[in-house]
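Worked example 2:
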Amino acid sequence: MDIEYYEILEISRDADSGEIKKAYRKQALKYHPDRNQGDKEAEEKFKLVNEAYQVLSDEQKRSTYDKYGKAGLDRQGFSHFSNMRYEDIMGDLGSIFESVFGGGFGSGGFGGHTKQNRKYTLDLESNVTLAFNEAIFGCKKEVSFTYKKPCETCDGTGSKDKTESKCKECGGKGQVFYRQGFMTFSQTCSTCQGKGMVIKNPCPSCQGKGFSTANEKVTIDIPEGIDNDNRIRVAGRGNIDERGSRGDLYIHIQISEDEHFVRHNDDIYIEVPVFFTQVALGEKIKIPGIRREIDFEIPLGAKDKQQFIFKNEGVKNVHSKQYGSIIAQLSIRYPKKITKEQRELLVKLQDDFGIKSTPHDEKYESVFDKIKNWFN
Protein backbone atom coordinates (compact mmCIF):
# COMPACT_ATOMS: atom_id res chain seq x y z
CA MET A 1 0.00 0.00 0.00
CA ASP A 2 1.31 3.46 -0.95
CA ILE A 3 2.40 5.71 1.91
CA GLU A 4 0.25 8.86 2.28
CA TYR A 5 2.66 11.51 3.54
CA TYR A 6 0.03 14.25 3.87
CA GLU A 7 -2.07 12.06 6.17
CA ILE A 8 1.00 11.19 8.27
CA LEU A 9 1.66 14.90 8.96
CA GLU A 10 -2.10 15.58 9.16
CA ILE A 11 -2.05 18.39 6.58
CA SER A 12 -3.85 19.17 3.33
CA ARG A 13 -2.23 18.61 -0.06
CA ASP A 14 -1.98 22.37 -0.67
CA ALA A 15 -0.17 23.09 2.62
CA ASP A 16 2.66 25.61 2.34
CA SER A 17 6.18 25.21 3.72
CA GLY A 18 5.30 26.90 7.02
CA GLU A 19 2.37 24.55 7.64
CA ILE A 20 4.53 21.54 6.77
CA LYS A 21 7.25 22.56 9.24
CA LYS A 22 4.70 23.28 11.98
CA ALA A 23 3.04 19.88 11.48
CA TYR A 24 6.42 18.13 11.52
CA ARG A 25 7.41 19.75 14.81
CA LYS A 26 4.18 18.57 16.39
CA GLN A 27 4.42 14.98 15.15
CA ALA A 28 8.18 14.60 15.75
CA LEU A 29 7.80 15.71 19.36
CA LYS A 30 4.81 13.43 19.86
CA TYR A 31 6.44 10.24 18.57
CA HIS A 32 10.12 10.81 19.42
CA PRO A 33 11.40 7.48 20.91
CA ASP A 34 13.08 9.27 23.78
CA ARG A 35 9.60 10.27 24.91
CA ASN A 36 8.16 6.85 24.17
CA GLN A 37 10.72 4.45 25.60
CA GLY A 38 10.10 0.88 24.45
CA ASP A 39 7.07 1.81 22.33
CA LYS A 40 7.76 0.18 18.95
CA GLU A 41 4.62 1.65 17.41
CA ALA A 42 5.74 5.19 18.29
CA GLU A 43 9.18 4.40 16.87
CA GLU A 44 7.68 3.34 13.52
CA LYS A 45 5.45 6.44 13.41
CA PHE A 46 8.49 8.57 14.18
CA LYS A 47 10.27 7.12 11.14
CA LEU A 48 7.27 7.83 8.90
CA VAL A 49 6.92 11.38 10.20
CA ASN A 50 10.55 12.13 9.32
CA GLU A 51 10.25 10.42 5.97
CA ALA A 52 7.13 12.48 5.18
CA TYR A 53 8.89 15.71 6.12
CA GLN A 54 11.99 14.81 4.12
CA VAL A 55 9.80 14.46 1.00
CA LEU A 56 7.26 17.28 1.46
CA SER A 57 9.81 19.90 2.54
CA ASP A 58 11.81 19.31 -0.65
CA GLU A 59 10.14 21.02 -3.61
CA GLN A 60 11.45 18.57 -6.20
CA LYS A 61 10.66 15.42 -4.18
CA ARG A 62 7.20 16.76 -3.33
CA SER A 63 6.45 17.43 -6.98
CA THR A 64 7.50 13.88 -7.90
CA TYR A 65 5.43 12.41 -5.06
CA ASP A 66 2.33 14.46 -5.98
CA LYS A 67 2.49 13.22 -9.57
CA TYR A 68 3.64 9.62 -9.18
CA GLY A 69 3.36 8.71 -5.50
CA LYS A 70 5.94 6.69 -3.60
CA ALA A 71 6.70 4.66 -6.73
CA GLY A 72 8.03 7.80 -8.44
CA LEU A 73 10.40 8.44 -5.53
CA ASP A 74 11.54 4.82 -5.60
CA ARG A 75 12.52 5.19 -9.25
CA GLN A 76 14.71 8.14 -8.30
CA GLY A 77 16.46 6.12 -5.58
CA PHE A 78 14.88 7.83 -2.56
CA SER A 79 15.94 6.20 0.73
CA HIS A 80 12.94 5.47 2.96
CA PHE A 81 13.33 5.53 6.74
CA SER A 82 10.50 3.07 7.32
CA ASN A 83 12.71 0.05 6.62
CA MET A 84 15.63 1.18 8.81
CA ARG A 85 16.41 0.79 12.49
CA TYR A 86 15.88 3.89 14.64
CA GLU A 87 19.55 3.91 15.65
CA ASP A 88 20.64 3.91 12.00
CA ILE A 89 18.56 6.88 10.90
CA MET A 90 19.36 9.32 13.70
CA GLY A 91 22.56 10.50 12.01
CA ASP A 92 20.62 11.27 8.83
CA LEU A 93 18.08 13.32 10.79
CA GLY A 94 20.58 15.69 12.37
CA SER A 95 20.31 18.40 9.74
CA ILE A 96 16.51 18.06 9.61
CA PHE A 97 16.23 18.57 13.38
CA GLU A 98 18.60 21.52 13.35
CA SER A 99 16.73 23.31 10.56
CA VAL A 100 13.34 22.82 12.25
CA PHE A 101 14.06 22.80 15.98
CA GLY A 102 17.41 24.63 16.15
CA GLY A 103 20.72 23.40 17.49
CA GLY A 104 19.34 22.63 20.96
CA PHE A 105 17.02 19.83 19.87
CA GLY A 106 19.38 17.13 21.10
CA SER A 107 19.32 18.43 24.69
CA GLY A 108 16.81 18.57 27.50
CA GLY A 109 15.52 15.00 27.52
CA PHE A 110 15.88 14.07 23.86
CA GLY A 111 18.83 11.75 24.24
CA GLY A 112 21.46 13.98 22.65
CA HIS A 113 21.42 12.13 19.33
CA THR A 114 22.04 15.45 17.54
CA LYS A 115 25.40 16.84 18.57
CA GLN A 116 24.52 19.76 20.81
CA ASN A 117 27.60 21.85 20.20
CA ARG A 118 27.72 21.44 16.42
CA LYS A 119 28.53 24.86 15.09
CA TYR A 120 27.02 24.44 11.62
CA THR A 121 24.79 22.08 9.69
CA LEU A 122 26.39 19.52 7.42
CA ASP A 123 24.25 20.17 4.37
CA LEU A 124 25.21 23.13 2.24
CA GLU A 125 23.39 25.12 -0.43
CA SER A 126 24.86 26.93 -3.41
CA ASN A 127 23.20 28.89 -6.22
CA VAL A 128 23.80 28.58 -9.94
CA THR A 129 22.25 30.64 -12.73
CA LEU A 130 21.60 28.94 -16.07
CA ALA A 131 21.02 30.47 -19.47
CA PHE A 132 17.52 29.91 -20.84
CA ASN A 133 18.68 27.30 -23.36
CA GLU A 134 20.93 25.51 -20.85
CA ALA A 135 17.92 24.73 -18.69
CA ILE A 136 15.84 23.53 -21.63
CA PHE A 137 18.43 21.26 -23.22
CA GLY A 138 20.64 20.40 -20.23
CA CYS A 139 24.37 20.92 -19.93
CA LYS A 140 27.43 20.39 -17.76
CA LYS A 141 28.09 23.17 -15.29
CA GLU A 142 31.06 23.88 -13.06
CA VAL A 143 29.93 25.15 -9.67
CA SER A 144 32.24 26.90 -7.23
CA PHE A 145 31.29 26.82 -3.55
CA THR A 146 32.72 27.37 -0.07
CA TYR A 147 32.35 24.72 2.62
CA LYS A 148 33.16 24.59 6.34
CA LYS A 149 35.50 22.17 8.07
CA PRO A 150 36.79 21.87 11.66
CA CYS A 151 39.60 24.19 12.61
CA GLU A 152 42.82 22.15 12.62
CA THR A 153 44.36 24.19 15.44
CA CYS A 154 41.60 23.55 18.00
CA ASP A 155 40.12 20.35 16.50
CA GLY A 156 36.85 22.15 15.94
CA THR A 157 36.28 23.11 19.58
CA GLY A 158 36.83 26.82 19.06
CA SER A 159 38.91 26.82 22.26
CA LYS A 160 42.64 27.46 22.52
CA ASP A 161 42.97 24.76 25.18
CA LYS A 162 40.30 22.60 23.45
CA THR A 163 37.95 22.76 26.45
CA GLU A 164 34.49 24.23 26.99
CA SER A 165 32.69 25.17 30.19
CA LYS A 166 29.03 24.82 31.02
CA CYS A 167 27.22 28.11 30.61
CA LYS A 168 26.41 29.53 34.05
CA GLU A 169 23.51 31.59 32.75
CA CYS A 170 21.42 28.64 31.50
CA GLY A 171 23.12 25.77 33.32
CA GLY A 172 24.09 24.12 30.05
CA LYS A 173 20.51 23.89 28.73
CA GLY A 174 20.89 26.56 26.04
CA GLN A 175 17.51 28.01 27.09
CA VAL A 176 16.53 30.40 29.85
CA PHE A 177 13.05 30.29 31.38
CA TYR A 178 10.90 32.98 32.95
CA ARG A 179 7.38 33.15 34.32
CA GLN A 180 4.68 35.61 33.42
CA GLY A 181 1.58 35.05 35.50
CA PHE A 182 0.79 31.35 35.41
CA MET A 183 2.63 30.84 32.08
CA THR A 184 6.27 29.76 31.67
CA PHE A 185 8.22 30.95 28.63
CA SER A 186 11.65 30.09 27.29
CA GLN A 187 14.11 31.81 25.00
CA THR A 188 17.57 31.11 23.63
CA CYS A 189 20.31 31.93 26.11
CA SER A 190 22.06 35.10 24.95
CA THR A 191 25.29 34.21 26.76
CA CYS A 192 25.98 30.93 24.91
CA GLN A 193 23.65 31.51 21.91
CA GLY A 194 21.77 28.32 22.76
CA LYS A 195 24.83 26.03 22.79
CA GLY A 196 24.84 25.42 26.54
CA MET A 197 28.63 25.72 26.60
CA VAL A 198 30.98 28.70 26.58
CA ILE A 199 34.60 29.12 25.52
CA LYS A 200 36.86 31.01 27.90
CA ASN A 201 40.00 30.98 25.72
CA PRO A 202 39.05 31.39 22.03
CA CYS A 203 41.26 29.75 19.43
CA PRO A 204 43.39 32.41 17.67
CA SER A 205 43.18 30.63 14.31
CA CYS A 206 39.39 30.57 14.02
CA GLN A 207 38.54 33.31 16.58
CA GLY A 208 36.50 30.80 18.55
CA LYS A 209 34.25 29.77 15.66
CA GLY A 210 35.60 26.21 15.62
CA PHE A 211 35.78 26.00 11.85
CA SER A 212 37.61 27.28 8.83
CA THR A 213 36.42 27.51 5.22
CA ALA A 214 37.73 26.10 1.98
CA ASN A 215 36.83 26.60 -1.68
CA GLU A 216 35.97 23.76 -4.01
CA LYS A 217 34.62 23.19 -7.53
CA VAL A 218 32.38 20.45 -8.82
CA THR A 219 31.08 19.75 -12.32
CA ILE A 220 27.45 18.65 -12.37
CA ASP A 221 25.13 17.34 -15.07
CA ILE A 222 22.15 19.67 -15.51
CA PRO A 223 19.24 17.50 -16.68
CA GLU A 224 17.20 18.51 -19.71
CA GLY A 225 14.08 20.45 -18.71
CA ILE A 226 15.14 21.57 -15.23
CA ASP A 227 13.02 24.47 -14.00
CA ASN A 228 13.46 27.59 -11.91
CA ASP A 229 13.90 26.94 -8.14
CA ASN A 230 14.60 23.22 -8.62
CA ARG A 231 17.44 21.75 -6.55
CA ILE A 232 20.12 19.24 -7.48
CA ARG A 233 21.71 17.16 -4.71
CA VAL A 234 25.42 16.41 -4.90
CA ALA A 235 26.18 13.74 -2.28
CA GLY A 236 29.21 14.16 -0.04
CA ARG A 237 30.13 17.72 -1.03
CA GLY A 238 28.73 19.61 1.97
CA ASN A 239 30.33 20.76 5.22
CA ILE A 240 32.59 18.47 7.27
CA ASP A 241 32.18 17.89 11.01
CA GLU A 242 34.67 16.96 13.74
CA ARG A 243 34.22 13.23 13.09
CA GLY A 244 34.97 13.54 9.38
CA SER A 245 31.35 13.12 8.29
CA ARG A 246 30.44 15.24 5.30
CA GLY A 247 27.00 16.47 4.33
CA ASP A 248 25.51 17.04 0.90
CA LEU A 249 25.63 20.01 -1.43
CA TYR A 250 22.30 21.26 -2.79
CA ILE A 251 22.45 23.31 -5.98
CA HIS A 252 19.61 25.84 -6.17
CA ILE A 253 18.73 26.59 -9.81
CA GLN A 254 17.91 30.04 -11.17
CA ILE A 255 17.22 30.55 -14.89
CA SER A 256 17.82 33.71 -16.92
CA GLU A 257 14.96 35.11 -18.97
CA ASP A 258 14.97 35.04 -22.77
CA GLU A 259 14.34 38.03 -25.01
CA HIS A 260 11.66 36.28 -27.08
CA PHE A 261 10.48 33.14 -25.28
CA VAL A 262 8.62 33.00 -21.96
CA ARG A 263 8.60 29.70 -20.09
CA HIS A 264 5.81 28.48 -17.80
CA ASN A 265 6.52 25.00 -16.46
CA ASP A 266 6.96 22.91 -19.62
CA ASP A 267 5.20 25.31 -22.00
CA ILE A 268 6.87 28.04 -24.05
CA TYR A 269 5.05 31.25 -24.99
CA ILE A 270 6.03 33.48 -27.89
CA GLU A 271 4.44 36.62 -29.30
CA VAL A 272 4.08 36.53 -33.10
CA PRO A 273 3.79 39.98 -34.74
CA VAL A 274 1.78 39.92 -38.02
CA PHE A 275 0.63 42.75 -40.28
CA PHE A 276 -3.12 43.19 -40.64
CA THR A 277 -2.93 42.35 -44.35
CA GLN A 278 -1.38 38.96 -43.49
CA VAL A 279 -4.42 38.17 -41.36
CA ALA A 280 -6.76 39.29 -44.14
CA LEU A 281 -4.89 37.14 -46.67
CA GLY A 282 -4.53 34.09 -44.40
CA GLU A 283 -0.82 33.90 -45.13
CA LYS A 284 1.46 31.01 -44.24
CA ILE A 285 4.34 32.04 -42.00
CA LYS A 286 7.07 30.37 -39.96
CA ILE A 287 7.19 30.65 -36.17
CA PRO A 288 10.52 30.15 -34.35
CA GLY A 289 10.41 27.18 -32.00
CA ILE A 290 13.02 26.07 -29.48
CA ARG A 291 14.13 23.17 -31.70
CA ARG A 292 12.90 24.06 -35.20
CA GLU A 293 10.81 26.46 -37.25
CA ILE A 294 7.08 25.75 -37.10
CA ASP A 295 4.82 26.21 -40.16
CA PHE A 296 1.68 28.18 -39.35
CA GLU A 297 -1.22 29.28 -41.59
CA ILE A 298 -2.93 32.35 -40.15
CA PRO A 299 -6.68 31.63 -40.15
CA LEU A 300 -8.94 34.22 -41.78
CA GLY A 301 -10.55 36.36 -39.11
CA ALA A 302 -7.85 35.69 -36.50
CA LYS A 303 -8.04 38.09 -33.58
CA ASP A 304 -5.38 40.12 -31.81
CA LYS A 305 -3.89 38.20 -28.84
CA GLN A 306 -5.48 34.97 -30.05
CA GLN A 307 -3.38 31.97 -28.99
CA PHE A 308 -2.49 28.87 -31.00
CA ILE A 309 -1.10 25.73 -29.37
CA PHE A 310 1.55 23.48 -30.93
CA LYS A 311 1.75 20.33 -28.84
CA ASN A 312 5.00 18.48 -28.07
CA GLU A 313 7.09 21.45 -29.20
CA GLY A 314 7.84 22.69 -25.67
CA VAL A 315 10.18 21.66 -22.85
CA LYS A 316 10.87 18.03 -21.96
CA ASN A 317 9.68 17.41 -18.41
CA VAL A 318 12.60 16.49 -16.17
CA HIS A 319 10.56 13.72 -14.45
CA SER A 320 7.93 12.39 -16.88
CA LYS A 321 10.03 13.02 -20.03
CA GLN A 322 6.88 14.25 -21.80
CA TYR A 323 7.01 17.43 -23.84
CA GLY A 324 5.04 20.59 -23.21
CA SER A 325 3.65 22.92 -25.89
CA ILE A 326 4.62 26.07 -27.71
CA ILE A 327 1.86 28.67 -27.43
CA ALA A 328 1.96 31.39 -30.10
CA GLN A 329 0.03 34.58 -29.39
CA LEU A 330 -0.77 36.84 -32.34
CA SER A 331 0.01 40.53 -32.15
CA ILE A 332 -1.72 42.20 -35.08
CA ARG A 333 0.09 45.35 -36.25
CA TYR A 334 -1.47 48.25 -38.14
CA PRO A 335 0.27 51.09 -40.02
CA LYS A 336 0.73 54.31 -38.07
CA LYS A 337 0.60 56.38 -41.25
CA ILE A 338 -0.64 55.72 -44.77
CA THR A 339 0.00 57.55 -48.04
CA LYS A 340 -2.70 58.98 -50.28
CA GLU A 341 -2.27 56.08 -52.72
CA GLN A 342 -2.54 53.52 -49.92
CA ARG A 343 -5.71 55.17 -48.64
CA GLU A 344 -7.26 55.03 -52.08
CA LEU A 345 -6.44 51.33 -52.37
CA LEU A 346 -7.96 50.61 -48.96
CA VAL A 347 -11.13 52.55 -49.80
CA LYS A 348 -11.43 50.65 -53.08
CA LEU A 349 -10.96 47.32 -51.25
CA GLN A 350 -13.60 48.37 -48.72
CA ASP A 351 -16.02 49.22 -51.54
CA ASP A 352 -15.31 45.88 -53.23
CA PHE A 353 -16.44 44.13 -50.04
CA GLY A 354 -19.63 46.19 -50.03
CA ILE A 355 -18.79 47.96 -46.77
CA LYS A 356 -20.30 51.44 -46.40
CA SER A 357 -18.25 54.12 -44.71
CA THR A 358 -21.36 55.51 -42.94
CA PRO A 359 -23.37 52.42 -41.92
CA HIS A 360 -25.18 54.27 -39.14
CA ASP A 361 -27.39 56.05 -41.69
CA GLU A 362 -29.39 52.83 -41.91
CA LYS A 363 -28.28 50.34 -39.27
CA TYR A 364 -28.04 52.68 -36.30
CA GLU A 365 -30.87 55.10 -37.12
CA SER A 366 -33.22 53.66 -34.48
CA VAL A 367 -30.43 53.62 -31.90
CA PHE A 368 -29.73 57.33 -32.36
CA ASP A 369 -33.44 58.09 -32.06
CA LYS A 370 -33.54 56.17 -28.79
CA ILE A 371 -30.60 58.13 -27.38
CA LYS A 372 -32.24 61.45 -28.33
CA ASN A 373 -35.32 60.45 -26.35
CA TRP A 374 -33.21 60.05 -23.21
CA PHE A 375 -32.72 63.81 -23.08
CA ASN A 376 -36.32 64.83 -23.78
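The radius of gyration is 32 Å. The longest helix spans residues 40-56.
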